Amino acid sequence: MISIRNEPALAIKDLHVKNTVTKSLAKPYLFWIGIAFLLLPGLIHAYLLMPFPGSQNLNAITISYYLEKVVTPLRILGGLVIIWYAVVNFSSNSRGGKIVKASVLALGLISFYFTDFKFQAERMFEEPQTVKFANFINNNVPESTVIIGVVNNGVAKAYPLNYLGYHHKIQDNVGNQPVLVTYCTMCRSGRVYSPIVNGKRQNFRLVGARHYNAIIEDETTKTWWYQATGKAAVGQLKGSQLQELPYEQSTLAAWISKHPGSLILQPDHHYLNGYNELRNYDRLQAVDKDSTLKNKDSLVRKSWVVGLVINGHAKAYDWRQLFKRRFVNDSFNQINLLLTLEKDSLTYHSFNRSVNGKVLHFNLDKSGQLTDLETASLWDWDGLSTSGILKGSRLSKVQSYQEYWHSWKYFHPNTLYWKDL
C-alpha cells in the first residue's frame, strides 16, 4: 500500500515529467517555424514572379509587391530562431532528428541560391555590360535581323530584337532624348518609353513577370510597371502611365533603306549564347511548329497579331491573314487604316490612309509597290508618295504592335479582332 504522505511527491514528479515531455515536444516546432520564415516567403515570391505552371494566371501582383518588402525581415527572423534552436536544443535531438533537420536546412540554402541568385530576373537577364553602336559600314548585325527602330531629332537607332529579347530592356539616349527600349519574349511585346518620371530620369530594374509580361521597377519610387502597357500596377505611383515613344519594328535591311545613317546596337560578347538562343525567334509561329494542329489558321495563345489602340479602343489583326493578303484597308474608331507587309514578310506598317481630307484605298501593283486606287500614285514604305498626282504627300503613321494573342487579349480585354473571312 502506498503511503498518503508520498502522494504530493508523486504529483510533483508527474508534473515535472509532463513539463519535460511538453518542452521536448514543443521545441522542435521552433526549428520548423524558423525554416518556414526562412524559406517559404522567398519560394512563394519566386513562384509568383517567374513563369512556373499556374503562377502567371493568378492575380497576385499586389501580393508579390508587398511580399518582396517582407522577405528579408522574415528571413532574418527565421534565421535567428534556427540559430537559437541550434544553440539551445539541437544537441538534445536524436541522431535521426539531427540528420533530418540538417538536411532540410541544407536543401533550404540550396533553394535560396536558386530563388535569389540563379533564377532572379535581373541576374538572369542583365543589361548589356558594353553598349556599343556602329554605322552600317562597320556593322556586325545581319541585315535579316528584326529590329526595333527609334528616330529622334534626326538621329536613328536600331535595336536587334534578339538582343532586346535577352536583356528585356536597354536604357539609352536617341537624339539627346532618354529612352527605355523594352521587349518581352513571353508576350512578344516591344515598347519604347520615356524613362522620365515626375521630372526625373529613372533607372529601371527587371523584377520578374506577371501574366507572362515583364515587370520593371523604377529606382526612386519602387513602383512596378507593366512592360506591355507602361502602366503602374502597384506602388507609390499606381495608376500612372509612362510616356510611350514611337518606334517601328522591321528587318535591319528595311530600316537601313529608310535610315541609311542609322546607328545599330552591336552584340555584347558577354551574352552571345543568350542571343544565339533567340536567333530564330522571329521566323516561325507556334502554330507552324505544331504538327498536331491541322488548321494552321486557328487562333491559339501564341498566334501573332498586330494590335492598335486608337482613342482608348483596341483592335487586333490576324498576322497570318495579313501575311496572305499583304495589305488591309480598314476603318476603326473613325480612323481609316492601312496595314501592310513588306516583301521580307517581317516588316509591317500601319498608316492613316486619309490624305488632305480624302480617304484613299490601297493596293499592291505587280511589282509589289503600294499604289492608291483613286489617283494611281505610288507610295514608298515610309508613307511618302514618290510619283503621281499626290507626289510629295505623306501618310501619317499609326503606332502598332506585333504581339501574342494571349497578351494582347489580357491587356486589352475589350479588343475587337479582325480576320479575313
UniProtKB/TrEMBL annotation:
Keyword Membrane applies = yes
Q: Which Pfam families match?
A: DUF3179 (PF11376)
Q: Which UniProt keywords apply?
A: Membrane, Transmembrane, Transmembrane helix
List residues traversing the bilayer.
29-49, 70-87, 99-115
UniProt name for this protein: DUF3179 domain-containing protein
